[in-house]
Structure formats: C-alpha cells, structure tokens
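Quick one, probably user error.
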C-alpha cells in the first residue's frame, strides 16, 4: 500500500448570533482537516489545526512541503519511523506551531490508516495490553466571559454542567473586550482579580463540594505575587488545578509551584520531551498538558513517558474538533498517567456535525467506540456544507 495524495479540507462555519452564552462567543469558526489517500482505497484522517484556528499556512506546508515527502511511501513504514521523519528535513517541527500542527495531523492520519489496516483501534496499537473498552473522565472546558457580561452567567454555566453529569469544569477569567484574543503572551490584558474572585466563590457556592474545579488564567497573572495570592484563594475554595498562571517562564513557575499547594499546570504548547524536560527538572509543573493536536501522537507519548518517570500526571489539553478529540482520547487511554481529558463545551457546529457519529460524554465520561483506527469518519455533507 502506498500513499497517493494528501487532501487538505479548509472548513469554516458561521457563528450563530443567537448563541448568547458567554462561551459561545469564542466559537471555532474555521479549521483545516487532512485526508491521506492510498492506492488501496484506505484513507486516514487527521486534524492539523490547533485551537480550531484556520491557519492557512498549515495547509500550505502540508500540500507543498510534506506531501512530496510522503507520496509513494508505505504508511506502515512511515508510522514506524515517524520521529525520524518529523525531524527531516532539518528545521521541521519543534517550536514552530504551523509545522508542529501539520505533522500532528499527518501522524493522526497515518495511525488511522495503520489501525484500519490492522483492524484495531488506535489505543490498542499504542498499548496492546489494553483489552477492555476505555472510558475516560473528561472535564467540561468553558467558563469564558467578557467583563461587560454579568458574572452570574459563569456561575450558571458551572451549575448547568453539573446538572449534565460532569464532575469537573474549567473556567477562565473574563477578558475586557471582544477584540482581545492574545492570551498567551505578555501583552495579554490584566485580570480583574476582584471580579474573578467573586466568580470562583460564586461557582463553588453553586456547585457545592462535589465538583472538581479548574482555573486557566492563560498566562495572565501580573507577577508571582498575584499568582500566589490567587492560588491561595483557589486552595481555600478547594479548586484542584491552576493552569498557566503566568507567562511561560520556567523559573517563575518553579517558584510558584514551591510556594503553593494547588497543583500548577502548563504544557499545551510543548511538543516534545526535549521541551518538557527542563520544566520537570526544575519541578516547575505538577501536571503536564500536552495535546495530540500539536504534539502529535509520538510527542504526547514521549512527554507522558517522561512525566511518568518524574511522578507527574498528564491532563491532556484538547481544544479542537472531533478528530483531535478522538486522537487525544486514544492517547489518554494508552498512557498510564492520564486520568482526565479536556472536553470543550463551546458552541461549535464542526464538533457536532463534522463526523458521522460524534462522541458525546455521558455523566462526565467518554467511551471510545470499538472501531479501527481513530474510529471517526467525516460526514461528507457537512464537509461540503462548510468547505471554503
Ligand atoms: Mg490552557
């Protein structure tokens, strides 16, 4: 069996203005998906589109740079040598989001083909010791709002998720304006701490003690003191995870992690064990959050292995569409130190319409269907509907 073609699907779906809940404003309205075709008629699916963003550069890389490397090759041989392939030619991957994303999508698609050829679900390929159908605990990831909106909406969302059966939920601090989206660098808007503290208190009061609560400040605390104060307040309220408190400086995370009790996490942008190693060496993280949508299959596996060797659990980051969700769930099932996966609850038609049989959590758990490969197939009508 040989690869004949890489097909990139550029998809976009309109935002429905009738969705007025805060989280809905952050709809993923575009994405790139990938189909790898073979001369045996087997195709593999991948999602090279981190954060659900359109990233047209990714499609360019796939079509012009990666496709010539793959056409004519046997998918099984590529799966066996992916790390070498990813490092070739020099400069690909590692710290370069469009390349990392493109290769992550390629890996997903190649493993999907491998699973289909061997008649096994991906988690079995990655961990043959797994025999029963994996069921993964997920946390509802939402809790987004703007400062001009009433904070009660966030409290309502947490209670709604609890009523839907979720046992864990994540929120973010409000952002000041509709145009502000850069939450991952030092230019991010400061957090209105009074407002945030009122929200986290309101949420805890509304859901009681039975729900695990997580906060992701998107690297937005002003300094270690502010992050420490917030961490202590979250500890008082029994929050279980404090994600990306500060801009991504290892020394700062190490100081904070030592000063507070609540577990500190990061890692959604880290794609290899090489990148994660210095964080673990300095004990800067209590939880690592790789994502198969950016680190790819091999990246998540090697990061999880390194984390496990350091006694650190993984909570997989997951912020894209159904194909990456599938890849991340298979990964979470296959690695021994991951017992929680992110499940975005934002309004997103691609998540519910793009595949034939979308996976929905039941009572806070997602079961991986017993199908070969990733176990998801595109709905061709939805692909036509949203293609641009
Ligand atoms: Mg995050």
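Nope, works fine. Designed sequence:
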């Amino acid at each position: 069996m040989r690869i004949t073609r890489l097909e990139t699907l550029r998809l976009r779906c309109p935002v429905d203005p009738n969705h007025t809940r805060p989280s809905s404003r952050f709809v993923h309205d575009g994405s790139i998906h990938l189909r790898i075709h073979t001369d045996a008629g087997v195709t593999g699916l991948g999602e090279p589109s981190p954060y659900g963003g359109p990233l047209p550069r990714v499609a360019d890389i796939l079509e012009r740079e990666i496709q010539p490397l793959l056409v004519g090759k046997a998918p099984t041989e590529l799966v066996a040598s992916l790390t070498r392939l990813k490092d070739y030619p020099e400069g690909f991957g590692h710290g370069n989001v469009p390349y990392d994303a493109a290769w992550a999508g390629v890996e997903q698609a190649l493993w999907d083909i491998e699973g289909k050829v061997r008649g096994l679900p991906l988690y079995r390929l990655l961990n043959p010791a797994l025999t029963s159908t994996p069921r993964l605990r997920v946390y509802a990831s939402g809790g987004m709002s703007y400062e001009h909106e009433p904070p009660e909406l966030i409290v309502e969302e947490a209670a709604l998720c609890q009523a839907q059966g979720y046992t864990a939920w994540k929120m973010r601090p409000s952002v000041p304006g509709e145009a502000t989206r850069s939450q991952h660098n030092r230019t991010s808007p400061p957090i209105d701490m009074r407002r945030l503290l009122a929200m986290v208190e309101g949420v805890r009061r509304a859901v009681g003690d039975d729900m695990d609560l997580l906060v992701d400040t998107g690297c937005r605390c002003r300094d270690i003191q502010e992050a420490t104060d917030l961490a202590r307040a979250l500890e008082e309220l029994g929050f279980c995870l404090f994600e990306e408190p500060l801009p991504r400086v290892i020394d700062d995370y190490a100081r904070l992690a030592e000063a507070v009790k609540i577990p500190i996490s990061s890692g959604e942008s880290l794609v290899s064990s090489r990148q994660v190693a210095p964080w673990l060496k300095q004990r800067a993280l209590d939880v690592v959050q790789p994502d198969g949508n950016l680190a790819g299959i091999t990246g998540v596996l090697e990061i999880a292995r390194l984390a496990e060797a350091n006694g650190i659990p993984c909570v997989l980051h997951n912020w894209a569409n159904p194909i990456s969700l599938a890849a991340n769930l298979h990964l979470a099932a296959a690695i021994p130190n991951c017992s929680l996966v992110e499940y975005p609850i934002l309004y997103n038609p691609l998540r519910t319409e793009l595949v034939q049989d979308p996976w929905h959590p039941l009572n806070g758990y997602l079961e991986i269907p017993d199908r070969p490969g990733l176990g998801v197939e595109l709905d061709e009508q939805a692909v036509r509907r949203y293609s641009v």
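The first strand starts at residue 3 and ends at 12.
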